[in-house]
Design brief:
binds adenosine-5'-triphosphate; 7-stranded mixed sheet; 3 domains; Rossmann fold; single chain; BirA Bifunctional Protein, domain 2; 24% strand
Length: 588
């Protein structure tokens, strides 16, 4: 993972956001190559889910969502994680009652638990909730936290060089931070942690020209005039803010549910079963941010809501499971790194009729990249109940057929079995895939290290020690990113054998323009003045499937060298054949 993140930064795939200002935890920016790769992954998804079928259409709904939608979907009340509070940060509200936090002369903060078992529990909680990679020692009921520094509002713990967590880039070292206000509550029997409690993952925002802080202050002062009861104050603050309250959506799916009928009516050819697809940003105030872009507060989802008749749901769920696994296997090389994990009964939401995670074997273990669920009619039912609008589907063809029969026989058909098949609330089968996670999984999957002969070698960056920065400098080993050609950020690199020969450069420019025009893909004109071998290796490292070299023979015989990334094979081909060869390669 460290190897990949190093490559991502060096070659312009992924950067820590706002790095020059110290970075923001969990925020990443995609560089020129990252943006291409991400676009390609989402385009492949869209091609497969929308362009490749006649029963799915796309939609793009608003990110800012009114509370009514998310109250109805259950997110306001139930979209929670378990959280433990840091007492140190809670004590902020009563600094008058607490003495200042002190380090000892060896930069340690000593904590004494009431007994040994409690100390063990605290140690475990600190390690798992706050500071995976920090140096924490415990002896009996004494715990020592080795401190790197104390900042105005947080303790930055010292990192343990032996810890796995150090494999993360600088941004993630902030997981070692324990927020505090500089005060410890002397009356508390636990200096850190409260019992766990649910914490809503949604980001609130306010559509209001008046700063919500002003409103909060006014409401608080008003409430405190009559009582100092915190619950009553909170209720008044919530009531004051509610009219302008909105949320950043935590998933794209709800935008589809609330629009499903409008979409279907505007596209009457869509008969059940049919789907609505959406790619867009979602936001979750995740407590744990981990593994770079694996879990971030802002991420993109690629979601399909497939509307089916109740009696089709089971079969469609099975069929989508297969088709999504096949999709993953088209792009990942290591098929044994992909698996389905069916949810156990007690993991399922009460309305869910079935759910499986598609998991990828990341360097830290199996992790979810996509969820496929049979959501029943829960969402549409709830929105119908809340709005009073019937979100039922009417099968116009079946209805016309019945009406025709009725005309012919002169008899009304009133049997429930007939009418229920004509009009019903659809059930939904959902496929929900994280774009950023997919990109991370596919990059890790594609990355191999090869020796001087181009043979893949088993490789573990951790064996190479702290100083190793670029794989290309180590013992003749180098990295090749064997991305599926359609995912590759640059499809073809066209390069002159020497970059200061204007005839060769002119031919390269012509070939580049021709390929760009015909293929509408990213073609690079590679003009670096390093050796041709080094240029090939740089292209291998970022996953470019084909390199075309124009040399001194090209003006004479109209041929170029075409080099394949995965085999290193080079062959002489006429310029006129290059387009077809690349086109065929992209069809795989
Ligand atoms: P997890 O259990 O990892 O938190 P989840 O079950 O909450 O994921 P879903 O609600 O099913 O995730 O969302 C569908 C997909 O969206 C996930 O499979 C994942 O790929 C992606 N996803 C969810 N949360 C995040 C996040 N915070 N950062 C990046 N991707 C995410």
């Amino acid at each position: 993972m460290r190897h990949l993140l190093d490559l991502c930064k060096r070659r312009g795939f992924l950067f820590q956001s706002a790095e020059i200002h110290g970075g923001l935890r969990g925020a990443y920016d995609y560089g020129p190559l990252g943006v291409e790769l991400k676009r390609n992954v989402s385009q492949e998804w869209w091609n497969s889910m929308v362009y490749g079928r006649s029963d799915v259409v796309g939609i793009d709904t608003a990110i800012i969502t009114p509370p009514a939608v998310l109250k109805t979907s259950g997110h306001v009340d139930q979209f929670t994680d378990e959280m433990v509070d840091s007492r140190l940060s809670m004590d902020r509200f009563r600094p008058d009652k607490a003495p200042a936090l002190k380090m000892d002369d060896r930069n340690r903060i000593p904590i004494t638990a009431p007994d040994k078992d409690t100390a063990k529990k605290w140690e475990h909680l600190i390690r798992t909730q706050f500071a995976k990679g920090a140096i924490i020692t415990r002896s009996g009921k004494e715990i020592q936290l080795q401190v790197d520094r104390l900042e105005k509002d947080r303790i930055v713990l010292a990192k343990d060089p032996a810890s796995d967590n150090n494999a993360m880039p600088a941004s993630d070292s902030s997981t070692l931070n324990i927020p505090y206000n500089g005060y410890v509550d002397p009356n508390s029997n636990s200096p850190f942690l409260t019992e766990s409690r649910p914490f809503n993952l949604m980001f609130k925002t306010y559509l209001d020209p008046i700063d919500p802080t002003d409103k909060i202050i006014t409401a608080t002062l008003e409430a405190q005039q009559t009582s100092s009861d915190l619950t009553a104050t909170r209720q008044l603050v919530d009531k004051t803010l509610y009219p302008s309250l909105t949320y950043l959506r935590p998933e794209t799916a709800q935008g589809v549910f609330i629009n499903y009928m409008t979409v279907q009516r505007s596209h009457p050819h869509l008969r059940i079963p049919f789907g609505i697809a959406q790619i867009g940003k979602s936001f979750r105030n995740e407590i744990r941010l981990e593994h770079a872009i694996f879990r971030t507060p802002e991420f993109e989802q690629m979601e399909l809501e497939y509307f089916v008749a109740p009696w089709q749901a089971e079969e469609q769920f099975t069929s989508w499971r297969k088709s999504r696994i096949d999709w993953w296997k088209t792009y990942a090389r290591n098929h044994d790194h992909i698996r389905e994990r069916p949810h156990a009964q007690d993991e399922l939401a009460h309305y869910s009729k079935g759910c499986v995670d598609v998991e990828y074997l990341f360097p830290w273990g199996w992790g979810e990249v996509e969820g496929i669920a049979n959501r029943s009619d829960f969402d549409l039912d709830k929105h119908a109940e809340a709005t009073g609008i019937k979100l039922q589907y009417t099968d116009a063809v079946l209805m016309q057929e019945r009406q025709k029969r009725e005309k012919e026989t002169g008899q009304k058909e009133t049997r429930v079995e007939v009418l229920d098949r004509e009009r019903y609330t659809p059930h939904v089968v959902e496929s929900s895939c994280g774009l950023n996670r997919a990109m991370l999984a596919l990059m890790l999957d594609a990355m191999v290290v090869v020796d001087e002969d181009g043979q893949e070698v088993p490789f573990n960056i951790e064996d190479e020690g702290e100083d190793s920065k670029s794989s290309s400098n180590r013992k003749g080993l180098r990295t090749v990113m064997k991305l599926h050609p359609r995912l590759a950020p640059i499809k073809v690199a066209v390069m002159p054998l020497v970059s200061n020969n204007s005839d060769l450069v002119a031919i390269c420019t012509d070939i580049t323009n021709h390929l760009r025009q015909e293929l509408t893909v990213n073609v690079a004109l590679e003009m670096q003045s390093t050796t041709i071998g080094k240029r090939y290796y740089r292209m291998d490292e970022i996953g470019t499937p084909w390199c075309i070299t124009v040399d001194y023979d090209t003006p004479k015989d109209g041929s170029v060298t075409l080099r394949q990334r995965d085999t290193g094979e080079q062959k002489r081909v006429p310029i006129s054949e290059v387009l077809t060869l690349v086109q065929n390669g992209l069809r795989i």
